[in-house]
Each structure stands twice: as structure tokens, then as C-alpha cells.
């Protein structure tokens, strides 16, 4: 496109009339502190460099970069020199925006895209963001500011934004707080926080990304800074939201909505999504600190099969190693690991083992020797090695911020992979050191050649560790999808791993904290997340364990785990009554697998979060923004876990539309709160009316049974409704070559007819030829059933339920 053409399009983006109506923050009265900070002064000059606009007050510079129609990045250079443009979080820095434009009048500069206007006030340098109708979404309360910092010759950098009266704040990773962060001050500094409490700061992960909703519209801010960061959401000053850092650059992305779900989606465009996990990774997993020796592992596995409770994976915690040396086996406990793993595998179990970052200082240990010989371990400021005590005793630690070290680390998994291990669990990677918390600040890191102290590298240490793990496994497994899980994380970690919420407690309060954390993680880009079901420390009773298991079915990652000094935690450990309920719910997870797999695909491919709070479904009603107990699992299921002992019933808000109660198919009208009974063997689970949902038969592990014909539940609803399904063979990266099948069902129904259309896209061929379609909630008796011109009839299955046998590649089915 020619430049003049571009200009033309650009100028049409925003009319003069709209410009006059753009809202922005006006000169506030500043109450400056005694310790002098430097604030941006009036704008004195403006230049354009490619997509970037640079504004200067004579000394400091601010860069405004148009990333896309919905994303604008702002950077501050206190003395006019920007830092190298490098990020561990952002995948693609070089987005080509469609069109953008800059204009000015007496008061402001306006950088605009098709959807966003960024206003820079000439007099006070306040930066504001509005939509193209002029509605202010987010704006500076005071100009960006900084403080020279003699500690290390850099700056503390600060941004202070206006907080609107009605504004609600979400996001920020694993915070154990109410979903709405308003009034909270949070700290990001990855920490090993055994038995953490409600509202404790900081925790294991650093996700410096929040969303704001004001006047029914949403936006996000991603403050991409790896130093210790702080956010205050109207906590100190009711009308201000601030974020700041102890170093690095003031650099943030404004991400436009106006729908919350689109903000999350666009954040995923910046930071990536999780690859499609192997099918077995979304089954049920059993873990314990620790299952050993071998006989115990085999016993647990046998019990699952004997009791017919589905399970796909068993975990080995640190005790499988020889003296906690990573990549070794304790031969006393596990004399023949290969045989054990292959026996487990023949029985349908995958084996997942733990790997920590601390490498034992031991001249006779090959991993230590290799790391030492190649200078792979982190060093202090005086070049002496960073040493700390963890499980193996005295340890040194790889510098995962060096690509060479990551390459080496990835290769170390070779032996365990050859032994048959299917997944890896990276723990203690905040990094955690006994007694001292973490590394001292002066530890040096390579930081992809940009170099930095531990102050800069701390929050990405765990992410780079699991990145090394993932990259190595991807090579070792050839085309097979790895499974990894990490405790520490920074924004973007979803590209390499799933996460869990660390050492929680077996209390009802922690069950509640867990549902908040998982919703929050899902809104923060880490959709593949789970809690230690049942609680890590302390002892649950059967009821708490069982209610937590029910929530676990709707946790993206479903794993029971616990500390070694607690009571047994297998699904049968609390007696037959609880076992039966746990079994029923684990079976439910397996029935839902095709649906769960599809929502993982939607996450991977389209950046859609897996857990969606009611706020994400109906953000225009203020009251909904504060609901935090009910949430959607994908786009078709709404749940509200039971969070109290002896609870007989629960009030649940159902979003607009009709909903089928899962256990008896009663239909409830949404847009209302309803009260639902909560007997121990049920929980509030609702399926959106209009949905077409695939269901697997119960299997003891994924892939155990060949599907003869796929069961589809057709939940009747009047009007037009869309459902999406995804399928492939479940194991390799062939989906990157389009070897998959995306299915789109369109149900168009009236009071006396159902029309169902199917569209299929992709190159995968299913192993079965037909669907068994089970109509649910039909308001009429079908007389005429026609599939692609062929007449069919209702059949009755062994349970007396009615279904229609239909070709799996049918295009149109009518039921009248
Ligand atoms: O210092 O490996 O959060 O899941 O069982 C404790 C032992 C180390 C902490 C993890 C937990 C794991 C435990 N680990």
C-alpha cells in the first residue's frame, strides 16, 4: 500500500468531532513526597520512528508504540536512553498494526488505531487511553515518575493511574485474595510460601498483568518488568491505581477490550498459549510426597484398577532420587525403574517425576561435574559460586537465563525419558533456598546476553528452568507432546508448562482460596492450572476431601497431592462412602474428556481462558463483577463448588439463557439466582441449553477403550446455538500440520422441531463412523427424523435411553 493511501485510511480513523469529545485525565493536584522523585515535565518535542512515537520533555523520553489495533505499548526513558528491547514474556515484538495515526491540537497529542486513542497531554504529560467514542478507559493520575537509585545505579520507576469509583480489578496470577483486587496492595517476588494464608504476599508466581472494568467496559495493563514489582489497586488512595518496580524500565502494554474475555485473548497474543496437552495430562492424577519404594507405587496403581477408579498418572516426589541428586534413581527403593514404569504403563499409568534446580555439590556426581566444567552454575558478585542448602544438602544452581545452560539442562532428561518417564514436575524454582529464602541479590545472571543481577532475574528463574525442561523434552520425545508442571512462573510461562498453586492447606478456607486462585490464573494467561486436591499440609476429613475432588473435576489440572506427614490421600482412604462419591466424580471427569480436550484446544488456538468467572460472561451488570463462587468451565458448563461442611443447599447465580442441572436435566432460567440442593454426591453443575456435547464412556485411563460410536448429548433450546468440538489422536504435534478435526454444531430449534447442522474442518479421520445423538429436554415427541435426506428413527439403548444413530460426517439432521 502506498504511503498516501495509508495516510488516508489513517486520517479517517478518528474524526475532528470525536477528538473534541475524547476524555482524558486533567491536571491533578500533586502532593509530592519528601524523597524527591522526578516527574515528567511538559512535552517539548515529538518524533516518529516507524510504529513508534517518541515524546520528550527535553530530557526524559516516552515511547508510544502501536502494537495492534487493540494494544499500545508505553515506555519511559528517564534520561532519554531506552533499554534494550528484550522480553522473556512477549512472543512477537514485531506486530504489524493495520493503520494508526497521530494528530495534535493545542492541548494534546492523539495516537490512534481503529479501536483505541492514546492521548498525551502536552502540558502535564499525562497519558490516557480511550475507546474511539472517547470513553476514558485508563489514564495517568500523575505523570510517570522515577527515583534515582544509588543502590545499583538504576531507577525505581512508578506509574499512577486514576481509579474510577466503580472500577473492579482482576488478574495478577496466583494471588490468594478475592477476585476483585480493589483495595489490595500486591507484591511480585516469587517465593516458596509453604502453608500460605489468605491475602499473603508475595506468593510463588509473578504475573504483572491486571484487568480493570469500568462502566461495563474492560481493558488490561501488562507491566512487563521482571524486578520486584508492586501494584496498589486503590488501597492507599481510593482514586488511584499505582504500579512500580525496584528497577528496570517502566514499560507497559495497554490492552483494549471492551470485553474481558478479549483482553485475556489479546494478552495471550502477546505472551503465547499452552500447546495442546497430551490427552492423558487432562485425566486424573495421583500424587503424594512420596510414593516409595516401588512396591508402594505398584500397590497404589493396583488399587486404582481393582477399585475401578480411573487414573492416568502416578507421581514420584523427591525420594525416588539417589540422595536427592536430580536425574538419578535411588536403587534401593527402585532397583529396576524401567521395568516398573513399563509395567505401570501396560496398566495404563504414566509416570511423572520431580526435578529441582539445586544440584548437589559432589565431585562424583556427573551432573555437578558437567555443570562445573562448563561453568553453567550461577555465581556471586565476587565470582564465587552461588551456594545454598536444599534437599540434597550443599547445592549449586544452573543459570537458566543462558541458552547454552538451557540446552544442557534439557538434554539431562534423556536417561529418565529412556526409562519411560512421561512427564516432569519442576519444583523449588522460585528459587527456594533453605533458611535464606532465595539467592542473594548480587548473584549474576547471563540474561540472554543482556546480563543482570538476581534482582532482575529472580522472577523469571523458574520460568527459564521449565522452558529448558520443555525444550529438551520436545526434542527427546521427538514428535510427542511433553507434560510439564512448574511452581514458579512469570508471564508467558504458559508456553512451556502447566502450573499448580503450591503448598496449600487442608481446610475449607483453602478450598475457597483454590477456586479464587484458579479463576485468577486462568484470567492471567495460565489456564492449565490446579490446586493440590485435598490440601497439601494438614488432614482433611472425608467430606472436605470429597468436595475438593468435586471442584477438581472442573480444575483444568486435576491432581491429588499431599505432604508426607499427613494421612493417606487416595480416593479410598476415607472409607467406602466417600470412595463411592469420589469415584463417581472422577468418572465424570473421564466422561467430559472430549469436552475438556476441546476447551484446551480453544485455549491453545484462540487464547480463550478455561475458567471464566461470571464477570467474564456478563460484565455489564456491576453485581456480577463481584461474584466469585460460580464460574464457567469452558463455554458450556457452569459450576459452583460447595465450599462449606454440611451444606445442604446453595444459592447459585445462573447467567442469561437456560441451563440444565446436570444430575436430573431440570431446566432453570438464567439471569437469576436459584437455590439448589447440594447432597454430598452432587454439586451444582449446569449445562448451557442449546449445547451439543460429546461424552466418552467411563474409561480407567485415556485411550483404554476404542470408541465404537461417539455419544453426543443434544441439549434442546429454542433459537440458534453454536457448539464447538475438537478431536485428534491425542499425542503428537501433528495438529500443527492440521491433522485434527474441528467440529461446529449449529442447533436451530423451535417448539416442535430441531435442526442440527454440522461443519467439519481439518484432516484427522475419526476411528468411529457414527454418533449416537441423545436428545435432552425435547418438548415434543419426534415423528420425523431425517439425516441428509435419509429417514431415521429413535432407538433405545441398554439403559432405556433414546438416541438416534447418525453418520459422524452428517451435515444436517432434522427432528420433528
Ligand atoms: O520443600 O518435593 O510444593 O509439592 O511435595 C518442599 C517435596 C519441597 C514442595 C512442593 C511440594 C512437594 C515438596 N516440595
TrEMBL record:
Gene3D superfamilies assigned: Glycosidases, glycosyl hydrolase (family 31), Golgi alpha-mannosidase II
Membrane-spanning intervals of the chain: none
The entry's keywords: Glycosidase, Hydrolase
Annotated Glycoside hydrolase family 31 TIM barrel domain residues: 275-598
Keyword Hydrolase (UniProt): yes
Pfam families: Gal_mutarotas_2, Glyco_hydro_31_2nd, Glyco_hydro_31_3rd
Segments forming domain Glycoside hydrolase family 31 N-terminal: 62-232
Segments forming domain Glycosyl hydrolase family 31 C-terminal: 607-692
Top-level lineage group: Bacteria
Annotated family: Belongs to the glycosyl hydrolase 31 family.
UniProt protein name: DUF4968 domain-containing protein
Species per Swiss-Prot/TrEMBL record: Sphingobacterium bovistauri
Amino acid at each position: 500500500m502506498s504511503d498516501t493511501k495509508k495516510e488516508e485510511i489513517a486520517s479517517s480513523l478518528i474524526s475532528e468531532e470525536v477528538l473534541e469529545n475524547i476524555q482524558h485525565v486533567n491536571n491533578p493536584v500533586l502532593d509530592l513526597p519528601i524523597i524527591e522523585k522526578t516527574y515528567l515535565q511538559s512535552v517539548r518535542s515529538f518524533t516518529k520512528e516507524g510504529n513508534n512515537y517518541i515524546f520528550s520533555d527535553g530530557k526524559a523520553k516516552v515511547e508510544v508504540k502501536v502494537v495492534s489495533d487493540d494494544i499500545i505499548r508505553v515506555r519511559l526513558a528517564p534520561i532519554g536512553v531506552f533499554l534494550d528491547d528484550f522480553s522473556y514474556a512477549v512472543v512477537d515484538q514485531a506486530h504489524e498494526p493495520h493503520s494508526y495515526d497521530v494528530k495534535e491540537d493545542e492541548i494534546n497529542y492523539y495516537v490512534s488505531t481503529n479501536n483505541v486513542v492514546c492521548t498525551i497531554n502536552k502540558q502535564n504529560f499525562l497519558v490516557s487511553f480511550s475507546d474511539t467514542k472517547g470513553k476514558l478507559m485508563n489514564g495517568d493520575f500523575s505523570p510517570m515518575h522515577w527515583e534515582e537509585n544509588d543502590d545499583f545505579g538504576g531507577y525505581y520507576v512508578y506509574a499512577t493511574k486514576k481509579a474510577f469509583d466503580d472500577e473492579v480489578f482482576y488478574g495478577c496470577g496466583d494471588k490468594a485474595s478475592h477476585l476483585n483486587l480493589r483495595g489490595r496492595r500486591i507484591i511480585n517476588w516469587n517465593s516458596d510460601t509453604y502453608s500460605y494464608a489468605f491475602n499473603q504476599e508475595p506468593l510463588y508466581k509473578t504475573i504483572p498483568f491486571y484487568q480493570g472494568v469500568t462502566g461495563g467496559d474492560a481493558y488490561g495493563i501488562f507491566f512487563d518488568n521482571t524486578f520486584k514489582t508492586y501494584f496498589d489497586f486503590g488501597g492507599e488512595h481510593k482514586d488511584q491505581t499505582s504500579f512500580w518496580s525496584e528497577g528496570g524500565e517502566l514499560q507497559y502494554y495497554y490492552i483494549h477490550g471492551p470485553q474481558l474475555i478479549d483482553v485475556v485473548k489479546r494478552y495471550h497474543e502477546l505472551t503465547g498459549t499452552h500447546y495442546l496437552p497430551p490427552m492423558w495430562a487432562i485425566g486424573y492424577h495421583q500424587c503424594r510426597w512420596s510414593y516409595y519404594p516401588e512396591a508402594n507405587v505398584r500397590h497404589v496403581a493396583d488399587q486404582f484398577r481393582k477399585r475401578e477408579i480411573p487414573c492416568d498418572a502416578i507421581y514420584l516426589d523427591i525420594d525416588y532420587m539417589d540422595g536427592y541428586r536430580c536425574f538419578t534413581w535411588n536403587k534401593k527403593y527402585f532397583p529396576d525403574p524401567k521395568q516398573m514404569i513399563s509395567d505401570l504403563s501396560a496398566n495404563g499409568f504414566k509416570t511423572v517425576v520431580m526435578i529441582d534446580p539445586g544440584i548437589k555439590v559432589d565431585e562424583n556426581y556427573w551432573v555437578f561435574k558437567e555443570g562445573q566444567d562448563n561453568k553453567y552454575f550461577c555465581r556471586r558478585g565476587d565470582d564465587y559460586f552461588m551456594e545454598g542448602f536444599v534437599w540434597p544438602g550443599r547445592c549449586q544452581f544452573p543459570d537458566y537465563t543462558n541458552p547454552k545452560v538451557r540446552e544442557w539442562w534439557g538434554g539431562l532428561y534423556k536417561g529418565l525419558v529412556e526409562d519411560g518417564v512421561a512427564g516432569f514436575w519442576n519444583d523449588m524454582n522460585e528459587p527456594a533456598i533453605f533458611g535464606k529464602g532465595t539467592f542473594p541479590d548480587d548473584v549474576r545472571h547471563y540474561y540472554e546476553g543482556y546480563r543482570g543481577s538476581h534482582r532482575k532475574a529472580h522472577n523469571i528463574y523458574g520460568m527459564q528452568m521449565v522452558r529448558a525442561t520443555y525444550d529438551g523434552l520436545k526434542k527427546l520425545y521427538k514428535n510427542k507432546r511433553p507434560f510439564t508442571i512448574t511452581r514458579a512462573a512469570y508471564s508467558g510461562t504458559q508456553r512451556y508448562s502447566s502450573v499448580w498453586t503450591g503448598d496449600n492447606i487442608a481446610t475449607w478456607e483453602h478450598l475457597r482460596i483454590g477456586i479464587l486462585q484458579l479463576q485468577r490464573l486462568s484470567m492471567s494467561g495460565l489456564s492449565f492450572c490446579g490446586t493440590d486436591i485435598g490440601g497439601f499440609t494438614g488432614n482433611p476429613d472425608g467430606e472436605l476431601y470429597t468436595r475438593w475432588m468435586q471442584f477438581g473435576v472442573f480444575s483444568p489440572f486435576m491432581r491429588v497431592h499431599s505432604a508426607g506427614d499427613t494421612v493417606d490421600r487416595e480416593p479410598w482412604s476415607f472409607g467406602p462412602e466417600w470412595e463411592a462419591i469420589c469415584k463417581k466424580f472422577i468418572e465424570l471427569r473421564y466422561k467430559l474428556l472430549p469436552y475438556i480436550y476441546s476447551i484446551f484446544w480453544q485455549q491453545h488456538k484462540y487464547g480463550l481462558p478455561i475458567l471464566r468467572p461470571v464477570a467474564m460472561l456478563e460484565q455489564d451488570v456491576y453485581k456480577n463483577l463481584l461474584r466469585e463462587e460460580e464460574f464457567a468451565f469452558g463455554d458450556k458448563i457452569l459450576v459452583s463448588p460447595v465450599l462449606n461442611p454440611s451444606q445442604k443447599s446453595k444459592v447459585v447465580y445462573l447467567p442469561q439463557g437456560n441451563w440444565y442441572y446436570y444430575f436430573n436435566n431440570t431446566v432453570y432460567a438464567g439471569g437469576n439466582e436459584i437455590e439448589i440442593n447440594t447432597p454430598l454426591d452432587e454439586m451444582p453443575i449446569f449445562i448451557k441449553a442449546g449445547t451439543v456435547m460429546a461424552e466418552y464412556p467411563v474409561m480407567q485411563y485415556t485411550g483404554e477403550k476404542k470408541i465404537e460410536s461417539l455419544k453426543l448429548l443434544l441439549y434442546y433450546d429454542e433459537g440458534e446455538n453454536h457448539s464447538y468440538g475438537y478431536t485428534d489422536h491425542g499425542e503428537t504435534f501433528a495438529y500443527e500440520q492440521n491433522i485434527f478435526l474441528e467440529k461446529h454444531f449449529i442447533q436451530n430449534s423451535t417448539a416442535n422441531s430441531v435442526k442440527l447442522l454440522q461443519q467439519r474442518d481439518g484432516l484427522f479421520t475419526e476411528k468411529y463412523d457414527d454418533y449416537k445423538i441423545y436428545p435432552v429436554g425435547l418438548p415434543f415427541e419426534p415423528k420425523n427424523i431425517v439425516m441428509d435426506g435419509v429417514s431415521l428413527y429413535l432407538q433405545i439403548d441398554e439403559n432405556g435411553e433414546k438416541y438416534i444413530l447418525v453418520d459422524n460426517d452428517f451435515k444436517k439432521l432434522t427432528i420433528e
